[in-house]
Amino acid sequence: DPDETLSNFDKFFSNPTGRKVILSPAKEDVSKSLCRVFSLSSYLSTLISRYPDLVEDVLTLYQDFPEEERFTEEFEKYRSTLGLSPENLYRRFKRVWEIRIALVYLVKKEDRYRKLFSFFEKLSDLADFLLRRLWKDLGFEDMLLLALGKYGSKELTVGSDLDLVFLCRESGEEKTRKAQELIAFLTKHTSEGYLYDVDFRLRPMGSAGEIAPSMSFYREYFQSQARTWERLAWTRCRYVAGPQELAEEFEGLLRSFLFEKPLGEKERGEIRDMRLALEGNAKKGKEILDLKFSPGGLIDAEFLIQYYSLLERLREPSMIRACGRLMEKYPVLKEVQEHYTFLRLVETRLRLSKERAGSLLGPQDMKRVASSLGMQTEELQEKVMGSMKRLRDIFLEVFD
Question: Which of 59, 113, 224, 337 has the fewest CB atoms within 10 Å distance of its CB?
């Protein structure tokens, strides 16, 4: 959209530092890269117009995705020089590195999907770094922090929330208080915004359950109360922080829960029924597609990959890697992976196109995303609909 690109350019140019970056005669390549960002991402354009000094650094010094050592170096520098409160220090650091990682994603010349997977991984690495640092700063003891969902798979994209669960060796009021302290730190809004949205609904018994259950509670819950769909969800479980020996003990318990129970016709029916029930969460409207919840959406692909992971006793939290490891035995998963990664690409471009976009693809969104992918709007719509139809067909072939 030329008008949107020009508007994004104007926002950046109106900042004196941004103007200096664009007018510098030695920065022609930087200006070209910026024009690409302005045309692809209103969300990112708004952020860099507030922090134009980051742009030249990213486009000249940070031409590849960062390694974790870079996070450590910069965090210590921020801590010693900026004089920010702890809440604002973490938020500023996260925003700066999110911008850097997103800029690299948009301007790096690399295979579209390889670059996308690196983008997911680096956003997840950033969350790992911040949570592990915060875990240490807040003084947690004898507790585990575990990731589920996209975070567990190390497949975060822009605006993803964090699915987190806590585990204690022995539960108690102090452990609950510490967990609530972490949640408040992550979600509190300050002058620098918030750190992450957090979702704890995947913990045992959902929102009605304890925030920080004990190991014995998990053991009892997994043995006698957990439902089949929870086995699917817990395939994505990944350790984030806490004592290694406690993590190893829980991993043994988790493997028993995932792999020792049957997975027959009854369980397939329960998986199908749960997926169909989740379709009720799909947002409905004229010409609106819900990439996550609609029939054939991302959840269809995730349930398929998780089901085959359980069937083969494969302990691999990443949906992308699990699919790659399983497709030789189950060739249909090659098709699942193709459609899943395409829908994740569309979702990511959608979220980069506007702030807090979620997974709802409307007519204007379709036009914007199509442009960012070098496609015609009708071509993208046809391909998205085709991917979702095929994923639903495969899902029903497996679970009906």
Answer: 224
Contact assessment for residue 346 and residue 352, using Cβ atoms and an 8 Å cutoff: no
pLDDT tens for the 400 residues of the chain, in order: 677 777 777 777 777 766 766 666 655 566 677 777 777 777 887 777 777 766 666 555 566 888 888 899 999 999 999 889 999 999 999 998 998 898 889 888 889 999 999 999 999 999 999 999 999 999 998 999 999 999 999 999 998 999 999 999 998 899 999 999 999 999 999 998 999 999 988 888 777 788 999 999 999 999 999 999 999 999 999 999 999 999 999 999 999 999 998 899 999 999 999 999 999 888 877 778 999 999 999 999 999 999 999 999 999 999 999 999 999 999 999 999 999 999 999 999 999 987 777 899 999 899 989 988 999 999 999 999 999 999 999 999 999 8
- Secondary-structure class of domain 265-399 per CATH: mainly alpha
What number of CA atoms fall less than 13 Å from residue 237's CA on the CB side? Answer: 26
CA distance 152 to 74: 25
Report yes or no: 365 and 350 within 8 Å, Cβ to Cβ: yes
Q: Which helix (H) or strand (E) holds 341?
A: helix 332-353
Whether 62-259 and 265-399 share one fold: the answer is: no
* C-alpha–C-alpha distance, residues 30 and 103, integer Å: 11
In this structure, the strands spanning 162-168 and 198-199 are parallel
Domain boundaries, the chain: 62-259, 265-399
**Six-digit token string for 25:** 């005669």
Length of the chain: 400
Give the residue from 111, 123, 87, 100 showing the smallest Cα distance to 53.
100
> End-to-end CA distance of the chain, in Å?
44
Q: Which helix (H) or strand (E) holds 138?
A: none
Q: Say which residues have a Cβ less than 8 Å from residue 5's Cβ, sequence separation at least 6.
A: 35, 38, 39
Domain 62-259, CATH 3.30.460.10 — does that match? yes
* 137 burial type by CB count under 10 A (0-12 exposed, 13-18 middle, 19+ buried): exposed
